[in-house]
Amino acid sequence: MTTSIQTERIHKALDTFAIELPSWGFSNTGTRFGKFIQDSAATTTEEKLADAGQVHKFTACCPSVATHVLWDFPEGLKSTPAVMASAAKAGVRLGAINPNVFQDQIYKNGSLGNPDPKIRQAALDHILESVEIGKQTGSRDVSLWFGDGSSYPGTQSIRHRKQWFTEGLKQTHAHLSPQQRMLVEYKPFEPYFYHTDLADWGMSLLLSRHAGPQAKVLVDTGHHYQAQNIEQIVAWLLSEDMLGGFHFNDRRYADDDLTFGSIDPYQVFRIFNEVIGFERETGKRADIAYMIDQSHNLKDKTEEMIQTAITAQELYSKAVLVDHEKLTHYQMKGELIDAEECLKAAFSSDVRPAIREWRKGKGLAEEPLQAFRASGYTDQAARLRGKKNKGAVASYA
Ligand code: AFD
Ligand code: MN
Ligand code: MN
Q1: What does the pLDDT read at residue 1?
Q2: What is the helix (H) or strand (E) element at residue 113, kind and residue range?
Q3: Which atom of ligand 1 lies closest to the CA of 100?
Q4: Predicted confidence band at 27 (pLDDT cuts at 50, 70, 90)?
Q5: Angstrom distance (rounded) from CA 376 to CA 371
Q6: Smallest CA separation from ligand 1 atom 7, residue
Q7: Ligand with smallest separation from the Cα of 190
């Protein structure tokens, strides 16, 4: 149970805590070993946004949805009015725009890092169209992930590719409106296994700095080597004003895209603690986007997103309970156990009663997952979408 002061602090924090949903988390996806089809999964962008709207309706912390241009805007800019209408109907707004320069056949040897200037131009054209879509949807962020790399030594020039990325990202930045940002994501490996052009936070930081002041680093929590200290990266990027935001998910071994907080909730808490500590020390809100990047294929898609949103609220609520004044005092004095206990006391607090009270105050069901299940939405979706989803199995097979 939390004290009344702590409860108040949690309520205040939850009033402004928002985490963006990924449209790609609502449709049937799989691994290279196959797909387990869910009849109720979304089959169109409108359905993805409708499902995302359900998550926001029951949790009140997911007002925006990130989209993927090739999958959600099949006709590029021309698709924008329809997608905007679907978002409005679903009660959500369109968030980050994700270009896709990793799927088309032409990108076998990369996109902005491709040795063929025509392919680099094709990738840039797609990214610039995504920037224009963002202007139309009123999205602040264009979220850039590049699968570029190589799988065998000697097959590509690492130096030349770095230069091509510098050029391509500079040109991207030149097309941003004053309100837009470009978030440059990194990932140590996959889909290539010898080198990835944007493999770590330092490479993203340098390329963002070269590109311009509206470029920032995107930290995907699944994109680090085992045992890497992510909260240390977060602390450095915050202090350099170069953290644009997060793609949240959890992982056991690689970029597993597992449910946020399902494997290592304490790490999530420590990441939030770095952000909140920074905000308290500087007296300003970190200008970062909290986004989910998950699309696992076992749990019910919408239920998993509700579970993710609830977990994010719980871990964020725990992090706001850290007594940073005490923590700093013990850190400066080298009182190791007392300092550590500051974190552990907050992490072990049961914040659920305070969150249930917050929900009640908002007119929400105190248990979002149960309330969603009772709504019958999934059964209805399965009735409407089942045939189409089953058909996908046939075509996939
Ligand atoms: C994959 C990539 C990366 C990217 C996401 C959405 O690893 O995280 O942000 O797809 O495109 O997870
Ligand atoms: Mn990501
Ligand atoms: Mn990823």
Answers
A1: 84
A2: none
A3: 11
A4: very high
A5: 9
A6: 255
A7: 1
What rounded mean pLDDT belongs to the chain?
97
Amino acid identity at 129: E
Cα 146 to ligand 3 centroid, rounded to whole Å: 10
Residue with tokens 């305070």, as numbered in its chain: 354
In the chain, DSSP finds a helix count (H) and a strand count (E) of 15, 12
Q: Is the predicted pLDDT of residue 291 greater than 60, yes or no? A: yes
Residue range 81-103, pLDDT digits in tens: 999 999 999 999 999 999 999 99
Site to probe by mutation for ligand 1, drawn from 293, 294, 296, 297 as the one with most ligand atoms within 8 Å of Cβ, is 293
The rounded Å distance from CA 293 to ligand 3 centre is: 7
Closest to 236 in 3D by CA, of 278, 192, 280:
278
Q: How far apart are CA 17 and CA 80, in angstroms?
A: 27
Question: Whose CA is closest to atom 4 on ligand 1?
Answer: 145
User: What region, left, alpha or beta, does residue 349 occupy, with left being phi > 0 and alpha being psi -120 to 50 degrees?
Assistant: beta
DSSP 226-263: TT--HHHHHHHHHHTT-EEEEEE-B-SSSS--BPTTSS
* 3-class secondary structure, 159: helix
Cα(380)–Cα(358) distance, rounded to whole angstroms? 29
Give me the sheet containing 141-144, strands edge to edge.
21-22, 64-68, 93-98, 141-144, 181-185, 215-220, 243-248, 289-292
Amino acid letter, residue 58: F
CA of 145 to the centre of ligand 3 (A): 9
Q: What is the pTM of this model?
A: 0.97
Report helix, strand or coil for 95. Answer: strand
CA of 185 to the centre of ligand 3 (A): 9
Confidence of residue 393 (pLDDT cuts 50, 70, 90): low
pLDDT in tens, 217-267: 999 999 999 999 999 999 999 999 999 999 999 999 999 999 999 999 999
* Token representation of residue 232: 């240390």
Q: Which residues contact 161 (CB under 8 A, 6 or more apart)?
A: 110, 113, 115, 148, 197
